[in-house]
Amino acid sequence: MIVAVDGPTASGKGTIAKALAAHYGLPHLDTGLLYRAVGRQVVLNGGDPENPADAEAGTGFPDDLLADPVLRSEASGQLASVVSVHPGVRARLLERQRAFANRPGGAVLDGRDIGTVIAPDAEVKLFVTADIAVRALRRFLEMRDRGEDVTLELIEADLRIRDERDRNRASSPLVAAEDAALLDTSELDAAESVAEAIRLVEEKRRRA
Ligand code: DC
Fold first, then answer.
1. Which of 10, 46, 57, 96 is the most exposed, having the fewest neighbouring CB atoms within 10 Å of its CB?
2. Are 147 and 73 in contact (CB under 8 A)?
3. Rounded distance, CA 56 to CA 69, Å?
């Protein structure tokens, strides 16, 4: 079974995808991390993330970069969003993601274009959303716990910029697949979000 989990930043999609993978015994790929690594590699190369050739060169990042905690910062998220606009970057990351999705036995992938581009034939597609104020507060608390010096206002402004860029880019924008089940986590905590996701997966499997 392939499970595609898409949605904007801090919607809860990562938590849900990880929990679904554990519940169904499937491997999980956080595809946002790949774009974060590209952005980081561009900086390490001294390149410009807005420049398509520099951004594409960033796709040559070494695998151990994926474990660098710096990728978890909001600055890395913004950089990822900038490099992810370039079709050349998306094309270079496509095969790696497809190969993961098509592993024997299946997989869970989370990102922005899993249900629409990477795995359009996924058996289950979830589109996870939440109000911007809720997402900003979640991200703010997460960052504060990590000791980052941030304000709620700055985080919310950052998320709006990222949402806008991810939704309006020409190449594989963030959009719910027509056959995706919508899951709004605004009023749910992590455990409730995961329970609802499992319910939606089971409902989808029953109907298949
Ligand atoms: O999910 P995340 O916050 O780690 O993603 C970081 C950025 O990477 C996001 O703002 C847009 C980009 N991204 C993408 O374009 N396609 C994906 N499948 C995953 C992430």
1. 46
2. no
3. 22
Distance linking the first and last C-alpha atoms of the chain: 11
Q: 2-202 architecture in CATH?
A: 3-Layer(aba) Sandwich (3.40)
Q: What is the per-residue pLDDT across 132-179, written as a single tens digit (0 to 9) for each?
A: 999 999 999 988 998 888 899 999 999 999 999 999 988 889 999 999
pLDDT tens, 13-27? 999 999 999 999 999
Residue of the CA atom closest to atom 13 of ligand 1:
32
Chain centroid, CA 29 distance in Å:
9
What is the model's pTM?
A: 0.95
- Å from CA of 67 to ligand 1 middle: 17
Closest Cα to atom 11, ligand 1: which residue?
Answer: 81
Task: Say if ligand 1 is within 6 A of residue 113 CB.
Answer: yes
DSSP structural state of residue 9:
T
Using CA atoms, how far residue 54 sits from 45, 51, 58, 68, 76, in Å, is 8, 5, 7, 21, 16
Amino acid sitting at position 198: I
